[in-house]
Fold each of these.
Amino acid sequence: MLELRPSCECCDKDLPPESTEARICSFECTFCTDCTIDILKGSCPNCGGELVARPRRPVEKLVNSPATTERVFKQGGCKGSA
């Protein structure tokens, strides 16, 4: 099950479960649309994988399967893909 991480690893922007701006790679590294396009050019800086739109979990399913609250943030921001 996807963790639905709560923020962008590059800029720390909030990305709640219902966000349409979240992008993820196959390892669930999570970034906002702006960082994905402007900085990362569509590639994960951690693994080099493709960044795609993160699916949204239906609200009623969040009750029993909540999103994680653990934030992952690169203090120096992102420098581009691997």
Note: The helical segments are 33-38, 59-62.
Amino acid sequence: MASRAIMRSFGATSYAASPVPSPAVFPPPAATRLGRPAMAHYGVMIPDLPEPHRFLANMTLIGYSGFRAWDDDSVLQGTARQTATVCHGTAATTDDPFSAHGEDDCEFAADGSLLCFGDCFRISGLYPSYRVVSGRPGFGADLELTATGEITWFTKSPLYSHISLLTRYRGSITHEGTRTEVSGLCTYEYGAGFAPYMIAKRPLPKRLKLPIDYFTYHVLNLDADTQLLLVGLGAFRQQPALISGYLRTAGQGVRRLGTSARFEVLESQPEALVGHDGEAMAVPSRFRWIVRDGSMTLARLEGTVDTQWLYAGMGNIAGYRYEGEFQGRDIAGQGYLEYSDRRR
């Protein structure tokens, strides 16, 4: 199957627990080994903020991935290598959450200890401690992050590697002059890879990009120490070849759940969303996740999107209410999802 073959090339079809890299630095593209043209992604995602925020999205991309599901070629700032994008906001965000930045508008430390995207967004620090400071019209965040030591490797290959750190946060979010103190469990993401086409001055035509055209990612906090991650990735307009669930608990490690998982869109939003690139994308309003270990169902949950969608370039981000069962007990709460479907 072509879709599964490309997943194998990215090291995304098997999972073995791996430690935090040593040294634990997450460099931006200019500092990747051998100086190869590359891209990097950083993100901080919170699924269960108090009202009216519900969730927090911090999605950044430095350079272009070359994935059909991720690139917005309409916001190019010079060349692909000189372009960085940021999606940052919550369910209460009223300003445009998406912005593009050129190299003159950014500052990146070689070891990843400082990442500045204009005046609107900054990540600083080295593992295990980070700080996120942001300022958009009517909205801002100041959060201290501390990684717990649990790390999930979604992909691991010379082409592209993507990790997720279980992280605690504490700080404040300000919206329209109202400051809210927040704390809890979140995730800190880093992905980096070699994108051969980035030696060119312009993006590749869509037909020549890597055929990864479907992506969904969900973050749910089951309690104060436990987080569930659910991810789907597909290519060649086929059904997703990578559908997986990961459970991680502070101080107790990470494990991949079961032997199979399934994500179903039960109902789509009545109108497709149109991004900055002018392309329309159908997004779910109701969906279901099922994770099994052989014939045994480990997790079953249904989600209903009940926030606005934030355009993120790589797709769209929203929050949802969910309920279901996990390992024999009832669960319910708020979740965070990213969704990009370019198969059409």
Note: The first strand starts at residue 38 and ends at 46.
Amino acid sequence: MSILFLLVGLGLILSGANFLTDGAAALAKRFNISSLVIGLTIVAFGTSAPELTVSIVSAINGSAELSIGNVVGSNIFNILMIVGVTAVVAPITITKGTLTKEIPLAILSCVVVLICANDVFLETGTENILNRADGLLMLCFFAIFLGYTFAIAHDNTGEEQAEIRPLSTWRCLLYIVGGLVALIFGGRLFVDGSSEIARSLGVGESVIGLTLVAMGTSLPELATSVVAALKKNPEIAIGNVIGSNLFNVFFVLGMSATITPLPLGGITNVDLFYLLAVSLLLFFAGRYYKVRTITRVEGVFMIFAYVVYTGYLIYML
């Protein structure tokens, strides 16, 4: 029954995110909001909606390790597996702006989590916990990121507009409401199922969050990036991954910690430093080996790095 809950919940989450994104994008288009702004905000929210739903529901249910592990694990999966697989399909060309602005912002988000999560080491508390102050700080960073995003959109209004399927207003609203309902119920089923599986196997929720839940909630990003690569437009993968990672840390984790403090539990500095390391790897891979290009060789290395990390988690059980 737990596996059924997990699969049904995941299906509702993915379909809900798809309907929510389509409805919101079409509604925004009807009000003449630029496609670029839609892509940088609504579509980014849509692909990260599974992480948002699972993390908030987990936080409310008292499964803090699942909530944090979902974000950290998803971000590691996004960089190593999504970028890695996409680069194997087709080498990824990175724009100069992404290399000098967006990727450093993603690295900054890792540093923020490291600082906020190390209360014991920094002698600011008796246990490592993301409290409401940490959550509000992350939401402030998210507001700054949104301001930057709109500034970039304003500076690039002449770019080619993305194709968005037109919908009537009532269908837009139906898609949005239906998507939100599917996300809420799917998120609850997914968290209940994964938590029960963790308990039955004697596996900590932190490991489940870092692996199974992270992989499941990252499926929209993976699908988007692989399809982009098959359409000979693999550079979209970088924007998709970086935007999702920033959204996951600054908004998803920030919102979850604001709702209720999140003790780190089984999430350790090994996981947080590994996230920082793979973010740096993404920067150096694009910067030095072949200028502003993630090659197939680098893609294979990234996939291998994810397999090693997963093996480490299994070994530590």
Note: The longest strand covers residues 92-93.
Amino acid sequence: MPSEDVPVEVVITAPDHEWMRRLIGTLVRERLCAAGHLQPFETVYRWRGEIFEKAETRGTLYTRASLVQRITERVRQEHPYEVPHVTAVPLTAGNPDYLAWIIAETDDGPAITR
């Protein structure tokens, strides 16, 4: 896992666009992520021996590495899938002002409820 204060991009997928929009809004308000993007896409996957083809929504979040576990726990509790997709990759390069903004707009302290 990268250093706790490294900015990361978190990807979450879900079958419901509105569910994803509400989740991202909540995570931004709680300072668990600085921003999020929503993108519709088509997916093909195997689940328990069956092939599925579906429309889903991809949420891309910008946060710090130390918050990924809290985001993952939240998604696992609230997501409609039994095994939701949550992955994170470190942002190792980019506009330094943007990367600093991600850190400034997130909080690695106790959960904030607003």
Note: The first helix runs from residue 17 to 29.
